[in-house]
DNA sequence: GTCTATATCAGGATAGAC
DNA sequence: GTCTATCCTGATATAGAC
């Protein structure tokens, strides 16, 4: 297959950026086109409708989930550290895509939730491999969800070291 | 002062219900009026604008925060149990109002975040009184935020007993 | 492939009857 | 106090030129 046109990627990136920084309401076709540096007509050549644009972003996130799970497992500090430290990170591609799709799922596109559920499952699986106890793993992912909740509301994330210390005590309690 | 007209309360309740069950996008003036059983004109008699309707709900939540903090402290099972078990509860008035205002804050009304911050602070204060360690208290509130995150996305909440057990081990670890 | 219109529709708000 | 009717604005989508 031919390489996807650069304009497609630019449009998806602009859509993501608007969703993360200004919310779903502001991510109109006009705004996305402006932000991507194309006209509205040009945008609608690549994505035939708003729904198609949403689908494009959801599929992009789905592609990124496997890559993120692999990055968790390969992380020098381990999956738990990776998950908790990136949960408030709006700088990396995966986290931006996750937050963007979460905006869509809470807004006019509930079908976007499938990809979010898949991400949650991938995180839990990777954390279980590190901590052993599934209950502790679920709690770690739930803490991560809490950080996402605050981030999506614009509040400050909690201190990372404090959380890591608590997770360490939990692991010692349940494994020894 | 005279008692507030029943229509006002009906409208606020309808607004809350639409926000919690169908998201911010669906809570239009038309939909709220229909749901409350009044006409759009009737709604706009009580609340002169959409902004005024939003302010009405935010003020209602603010009123409920102090009452909820008192209920936490008075709870037979304690503040932690109260907080974690009610975080996915969309049946009680306070939780419904919180979720509704969170929808607004994530949507077109970021100013609604002030009331959410106040709730977070009230929860943390009450939990600190029970568990002592502020770090553990912040983690408990963060778990509660995670449950809210899932609830606001329409996902199933995690098992309560499992979380309570983990919090108990944390408390034993940090206090003894 | 990308642009400039323009049609269509929905939500918010106003005016005025009852 | 509550209703109906109407206006204004902005967002999606289409048509057709370049």
From TrEMBL, chains A, B:
<dbReference type="InterPro" id="IPR009057">
    <property type="entry name" value="Homeodomain-like_sf"/>
</dbReference>
<dbReference type="InterPro" id="IPR050109">
    <property type="entry name" value="HTH-type_TetR-like_transc_reg"/>
</dbReference>
<dbReference type="InterPro" id="IPR001647">
    <property type="entry name" value="HTH_TetR"/>
</dbReference>
<dbReference type="GO" id="GO:0000976">
    <property type="term" value="F:transcription cis-regulatory region binding"/>
</dbReference>
<dbReference type="Pfam" id="PF00440">
    <property type="entry name" value="TetR_N"/>
</dbReference>
<keyword id="KW-0805">Transcription regulation</keyword>
<protein>
    <submittedName>
        <fullName>TetR/AcrR family transcriptional regulator</fullName>
    </submittedName>
</protein>
<keyword id="KW-0238">DNA-binding</keyword>
<feature type="DNA-binding region" description="H-T-H motif">
    <location>
        <begin position="28"/>
        <end position="47"/>
    </location>
</feature>
<keyword id="KW-0804">Transcription</keyword>
<dbReference type="GO" id="GO:0003700">
    <property type="term" value="F:DNA-binding transcription factor activity"/>
</dbReference>
<feature type="domain" description="HTH tetR-type">
    <location>
        <begin position="5"/>
        <end position="65"/>
    </location>
</feature>
């Amino acid at each position: 297959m031919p390489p996807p046109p650069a304009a497609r990627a630019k449009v998806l990136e602009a859509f993501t950026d608007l969703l993360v920084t200004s919310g779903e309401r502001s991510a109109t076709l006009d705004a996305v086109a402006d932000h991507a540096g194309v006209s509205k007509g040009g945008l609608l050549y690549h994505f035939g409708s708003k729904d198609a644009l949403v689908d494009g972003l959801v599929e992009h996130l789905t592609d990124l989930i496997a890559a993120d799970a692999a990055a968790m497992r390969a992380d020098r500090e381990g999956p738990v550290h990776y998950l908790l430290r990136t949960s408030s990170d709006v700088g990396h591609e995966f986290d931006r895509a996750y937050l963007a799709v979460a905006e869509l799922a809470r807004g006019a596109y509930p079908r976007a939730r499938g990809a979010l559920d898949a991400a949650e499952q991938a995180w839990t699986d990777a954390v279980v491999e590190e901590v052993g106890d599934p209950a502790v793993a679920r709690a770690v992912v739930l803490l991560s969800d809490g950080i996402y909740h605050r981030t999506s509301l614009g509040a400050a994330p909690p201190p990372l070291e404090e959380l890591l210390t608590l997770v360490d005590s939990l692991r010692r309690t349940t494994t020894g």
